[in-house]
Amino acid sequence: MSAYRYEAARADGAVVSGLLDSPSAGQASAELTERGLYPITVVATNEDERRPAAGRRDLARASPSSYPPVCRSSVRSGPANE
To answer: Beta-carbon neighbour count of residue 28 at 10 Å?
Structure first.
């Protein structure tokens, strides 16, 4: 299987993107359609692109205990008042 980077529209008009393993670009598009998405682009990726970088959603799920000590104190105290 190959990896395909895609952009697709949701029913509400929001555009989402991601990485999908599929035997072909056509089958990747079909899978997106089955998920209720409207494919905009589906492009084969190289090996370097198969490892997605951490996104905001991944970082939001991280536990504050996994932050470095300096960051943990900031999270507990909240933002500075200006």
So the answer is: 24
How does pLDDT run across 7-41, given as a tens digit for each residue? Answer: 999 999 999 999 999 999 999 999 999 999 999 99
The answer to the question of residue 82 being in a domain is no
**Its pTM surpasses 0.70:** no
Supply φ then ψ for residue 70, to 5 degrees.
-65, -40
β-strand partners of 44:
4
Residue 39 falls inside a structural domain: yes
Domain range for 58: 2-77
Take residue 70 and report the two structure tokens written for it: 């300096």
Long-range CB pairs of 64-72 (<8 Å, 24+ gap) are none
Q: How many structural domains comprise the chain?
A: 1
Tokens standing for residue 35: 């998920």
Pairing state between β 38-44 and 15-22: unpaired
